């Protein structure tokens, strides 16, 4: 199947989000300090596993998008909503907007973009 430029951009964004989730995973393993007014190191294995899994899923999704797989559209919608829910939980449990702002903005833009009829048509999900 031919890959439109919008799908290529979505693939690139998925790779960027995989990279960002991997960085957050390293932060929760205590290997990188958190940015902000006070650079602190926090160890939380549960969050590290969660963000490591999200990084792996984003890489897998980027591969599906690159091949313009029919299931990639639905999987992208589900993972984007899940990522927004995780960011919301981080905000509610004491995280700051500074920690999740890029992720929330990117996931919201992805969700809006994939709902456009042209993108749905590229995946054959009309």
Please provide a written account of the structure.
Keywords: Membrane, Transmembrane, Transmembrane helix. This is Integral membrane protein. The chain is elongated and about 45 Å long. It has one domain. The two termini are 16 Å apart. The protein has helices spanning 5-28, 45-66, 70-92, 97-114, 117-122. With 126 residues, the chain is mainly alpha-helical. α2 packs antiparallel against α3. It is built from five helices and no strands.
How many angstroms separate the termini?
Answer: 16 Å
Low-confidence stretches: none
Helix vs. strand class: mainly alpha
Q: What's the average pLDDT?
A: 85
Secondary structure tally, helices:
5
Instruction: Classify the beta-strand content into a percent band.
Output: under 5%
Fraction of helical residues: over 70%
Number of strands: 0
Number of domains: 1
What is the radius of gyration computed over CA atoms, rounded to a whole number of angstroms? 15 Å
Apparent shape: elongated
**Topology as a string of helices (H) and strands (E):** HHHHH
Q: Describe the largest sheet.
A: none
Protein name: Integral membrane protein
Transmembrane segments: 7-30, 42-61, 73-98, 104-123
Keywords: Membrane, Transmembrane, Transmembrane helix
